[in-house]
Description:
101 residues; 3 helices; mainly alpha
Amino acid sequence: MNYGSTTADNKITSWFRSASGADSTEAKKMMSFYVFLRKEVDKESASSVSTQSSASKTKSSTSSGTSVTIRLDFSSKSQAQQFDALITQFAEDLHAKVEKL
Length: 101
């Protein structure tokens, strides 16, 4: 799914609302987190492509990773379980797409 535009952000927020039953404030937080992760992956992918390109020209290459620390607070166990289910589904969808590459 595209991201970065107001229209795309609204679609992503709507998806999180319908998938989790969260209110609009929580869905917006989930959307922001999702977009943040997507941007990090895109940066890492771009870096990987340029590193691979550079590595083919030189004998050794070092790569620096990206580290992200995230703290999640849930007001109830059921909210934590809903979030876990969403992330699990997201991971399964991602793995399926990677397998098709």
